[in-house]
Amino acid sequence: NLDNGGNVHGTYYVDGYPSLLGITDTHYRVLTMDEWTAVLGLNATTKNYAYVRITYTKRVTDATHTYGHQVDLTQNGMILLPPGTDAYFAGTGITRGQTYNSWADAPVITSEEFEELESHGCSFLPAFGYVYHHENSGVYADNGEGYYRTSTPGSPDGSGSFAYVLHFTPSTTPGFLTDIHYGEGVAVRLFYVAHGTNPYAGPAPTSK
Predict the structure, then answer these.
(1) pTM (whole model) above 0.90
(2) CA 146, CA 42: separation in Å to the nearest integer?
(3) Which of 30, 77, 91, 122 falls 20 to 30 Å from 54 in CA-CA distance?
(4) Side by side, which strands form the sheet with 28-30?
(5) 57 — phi, psi (to 5°)?
(6) CA separation for the pair 136, 57 (Å, rounded)
(7) What contacts 21, CB < 8 A, 6 or more positions away?
(8) Radius of gyration of the CA atoms of the chain, in A
(9) pLDDT at 131 (0 to 100)
(10) Where are the alpha helices (DSSP H) in the chain?
(11) Alpha-carbon span 111 to 53, nearest angstrom
(12) How many CB atoms lie within 10 A of CB 119?
């Protein structure tokens, strides 16, 4: 967990400038809760996200297939759709802000179709779940729920061990949780943000 200067703290929220990742450009940072709200269009009539399933192939090696074989896999998650990108996903079944009973009901696109969307400024947030910091029992809600850090602390003065976390499932609109401890294994997505501006107030930010 980092403070504004990239310093490590044992009990602080994730913030701003991730120099420990080798990224020195301070335009790249973790978004605040308000910025995530703007990026997703949560308070706007037109939403900037959509739930989707992306199919892809992967070559694996196991006891049965010594030299590897291709398997078809599906990654559930949420696509960030900047304003003005509707023409690029027309015909895919993707609908801005649509909720579903389960991931099985969400539209499916191929990795090639997503790469085309990505070339027009769209980003993908996989539903990676999270790792509970008190156990070594693997990932919770893997491919079922998304958890992404914000740089907004859970307490007004910025102290304590909690931060707001973006959370999403296909059955609800994205929201924020404050009960995810700093020690949980939660995904972090960096955005390129012009100094002094909010994402999506102007050109779409680039996630990393």
Answers:
(1) no
(2) 16
(3) 30
(4) 28-30, 190-192, 206-207
(5) -110, 150
(6) 29
(7) none
(8) 18
(9) 79
(10) 33-40, 111-118
(11) 10
(12) 9
CA gap 172, 139 in Å, rounded: 21
Distance, in Å, from the CA atom of 101 to the CA atom of 27, rounded to the nearest integer, reads 38
The length of the chain in residues reads 208
**153 contacts: CB under 8 Å, gap ≥ 6:** 12, 13, 159, 160, 162, 163, 164
What is the rounded CA–CA span in Å between residue 60 and residue 62?
7
Residues forming beta bridges with residue 163, ordered by sequence position: 153
CA distance 66 to 44: 52
With CA atoms as reference, report the closest residue to 125 among 71, 80, 178, 70.
80
* Torsion angle, alpha carbons of 142, 146, 149, 150, to 10: 180
Each residue of 120-148: pLDDT tens digit?
Answer: 989 999 999 887 765 566 778 889 999 99
- Please give the structure tokens belonging to residue 191: 């955005």
Tens of pLDDT, residue by residue over 163-201, are 789 999 999 999 998 866 656 677 878 787 765 555 544
DSSP character string of 2-63? B-TTS-B-TT----S--GGGT---TTEEEPPHHHHHHHHTTTSSS-SEEEEEEEEEEEE--S
Report residue 29 as tokens.
Answer: 């940072």
- Compute φ and ψ for 72, nearest 5 degrees: -95, 125
146, 77 contact by CB (below 8 A): yes
